[in-house]
Fold this sequence. Notes:
- By secondary structure, this protein is α/β, with parallel strands linked by helices.
- It has 6 helices and 7 strands, in the order βαβαβαβαβαβαβ.
- Strands 4-3-2-5-6-1-7 form a 7-stranded parallel beta sheet, sandwiched between helices.
- The longest helix is centred in the last third of the chain and has 20 residues, at 145-164.
- The radius of gyration is 15 Å and the shape is globular.
- It starts with 8 loop residues before the first strand and ends in a 5-residue tail after the last strand.
- The model has no long low-confidence stretch (mean pLDDT 90).
Amino acid sequence: MKDFFKPTWQVHAIYQLDPADLKRHGIQAVLTDLDNTLIAWNNPDGTTQLHEWLLRLEKAQIPVMIVSNNSAERIERVAEPLHLEFVARALKPTTHGLQEALTALQLAPKDVVMVGDQLLTDVMAANAIGMRSVLVEPLIDTDQWNTKINRFFEKGVKKHLKRQYPELQWRNNLDK
């Protein structure tokens, strides 16, 4: 399995990514999955916590872009009110959507982090393009039908990662 599925960091929630920590690690932009990472898949409006986090990143001049396998219509319902750019039909775990985002941001993979709740799509795509990644815990325990399939296969991958990389632990931020 090599390191295809190993995230750079595991942080409980995307909202715990502090702009100062991101900058200290040379991260100039954040790419994020949509469902169960940025918002609960069944709550397109997001939370107060999300809005506050986005404001902190905006003040720190760290752009956030949604990179999702969802349709443009689905993403736009969330992205437009939040004033976020997005890449739809990203085809993760391929690098297609991440490359499109990098081109739009005019940044290299080393300058960007991909944040997502799935090893088999978000983390794998980031690793394939040479980008750092943050695995977050899903915001809610339920998933859409297609994600349930990934979660089933992901269980075995997570067991392997725990044995192979015991230092890979859930954190409250990038450094602790």
